[in-house]
Amino acid sequence: MAAAWHSVLRCALVCGAFIIGIHSHELQHRRSASGQLPARSSSSASVGGGGAVRTSGRSILEASAVAASTDSAAEARCPALSRDLLQSVAKQNTVMLAVANEKQWDFTLNWLEHLQAAEISYAVVAAADVLTSQRLAALGQACFEHIDDEIPKLGLTWGEEGWRRMTWAKVFVLDMVADWGFDIVVSDVDVVWFKDPTPLFTEHPNADLLFGEDGTQSLNEAGDAGLEVTSSPFHDFNTGVYLMRHGNRTTAWVHAWRQFFAKCTNHDQHCAYDLMRDEPGDGRDANDPRLHTGWKGQLWMGVMPPSIFMNAHTHYLQQLHKVKQVEPYAVHLTWTYNGAAGKRARLRDMGLWFDPPNYYSSGSFVTVDLDLPEKPPGYNDWNENEDMVTFYLETIHAQLQQAYVGMALAVASKRAFVLPTLQCYCEKLWYEVVRCRVVDAQAMPFPVPCPQDYLFDPAHYADNPVRHGTPMDIRESSFLDNERTPQEVKESLLIIQPSAALQCTDCVKEEPGEGGIMLLMVPPALPDAQLLPLLEPYSSYRVWRFSFAGVGSTQRAYGGFSDAAAAQAFDQRMEWMTTDFCCRREEEAPRYHKTDAIVVKLNMTSEFKYSAMSNAVTAQR
């Protein structure tokens, strides 16, 4: 069963085009009733990009803000696709192609920021809707319109026909330009480029297609920056990042792939697998032996290892580029959870998301010093999956309880909460773990830093307060290490330490802390109504770092909310924003009496919750 879930869910949620317009990620096995091919050209009229705001000398985010404030932003649109347009931006006869829509706009800006930082100047974006067309034109970004008006009518939920057509959008664009003589780099907009990939065309002169690997393992030796040593059409390659050299072979392949849309009822990547693996042959290039024949033996294809064309797993968890001692070209935000919000959070975790300046400079913050678990001897060599899962759940719940205390103080003091670096001793997958890892990353050592999307649904941090309780203002664990966070924030730091040594409820004690940071000792277990007045003289400190070192238990550190309704609303949010751990192995579950706990809802309050404490106090009055 694990293999089946792996195949279905990985293709559904990891592979293929990046579609932010999808709000449901549940598996649905609905098939399209339509086999017709979308039209080759945009159905909407287009005009030139007059009045564009150039990005030279400023960041993409700054330019976007300026563009949004100009009258011309609502008038200018991307022009029609033409060979001259591509020629105007091509570098060494190469263009980078991407498709973007309104739902992806913040990802598109982030993608453009990283292109600018990497000095990649040959990107052209296909605008999939009018608003995106206007925004791109106002930025002065090379673009054209490719609008399929039928997509919204056909459904955007995973598995519906509109969703399928969205995944094929890059293929349709590629089909239109394949005969124009350009080498092409195809990129989704949930990709971060670190350096220009055009040298790969020179390094592999016989390659027709070079794909990114969709998995989490490379068998290349350390220092080997070449193609994946086991490269073949039967690799799970990814169609979100790849290079295509112009030529008769690739032109024929692209046209065949587009025509396959009418016959293959799946998303573009799955259908690319079917096509590439159709009588692929067994040839190896004499001069570049990691190139393999594919598609009836008619072209040469290769796969870049996930240490070089990375994903969120190999970059953030394994840091495979460091393990393999190679420089990555890009990271593609696959292997993340909870949709677009999860991708955005993971990019923030990695320090690769560009937020506006006030995200880093405005307001004040609370964070906590975690009392971290000690790794059991030999943990990384354990073979009993259930023992590892049990240890992970115990330790992550203890850490979440500590974060819960810090979040409560942040809410009470009207500050944002900076997540601590929580430690994960197990992975989260869409299917069962093996030794707490994905099956092809068994060498990954624990602990790893927990990504936000392992523990929380970031879309639930602040949505619908009436229904889901107190909204949270959350910053990622890397926030105080981010170069974009001002030094004046990082250096304005106060350590707050509840201490049982204080024999009072209305006093504090200042002591010099490590590195010259002030340590403020406060009485333990005070609720907000008593603690906040004591902290008021220290409100000018931008960062309050809460320490548990002076008390015997997490619960003794802070008493929470004096108001029962506030405590209830806070706990409601805590329950709403946590996500699930997945998954125990079904074949093991009966032996451990865990058949009802294959998937486990994570819990911020495994030891105590403030709403229960407030209710108890109210009942005693």
Descriptors for this entry?
621 residues; Rossmann fold; 8-stranded mixed β-sheet; 7-stranded mixed β-sheet; 22 strands; globular; disordered N terminus; glycosyltransferase; transmembrane; Nucleotide-diphossugar_trans
End-to-end distance, in Å? 55 Å
**Structural class from helices and strands?**
alpha/beta
Secondary structure tally, helices: 21
User: How much beta, percentage-wise?
Assistant: 5-15%
Strand segment count: 22
The top level CATH class name of the domain at 361-610: Alpha Beta
Per the principal axes of the C-alpha atoms, what is the gross shape? Answer: globular
Structural notes for this entry:
The radius of gyration is 26 Å and the shape is globular. The N and C termini lie far apart (55 Å). It is 31% helix and 15% strand. It has a domain at 361-610: Rossmann fold (3-Layer(aba) Sandwich), CATH 3.40.50. Helix 7 crosses helix 9 and helix 20 (564-577) packs antiparallel against helix 21 (610-620). The protein has an eight-stranded mixed beta sheet, sandwiched between helices. It is a single-pass type II membrane protein. This is Glycosyltransferase. Residues 123-347 form the Nucleotide-diphospho-sugar transferase domain.
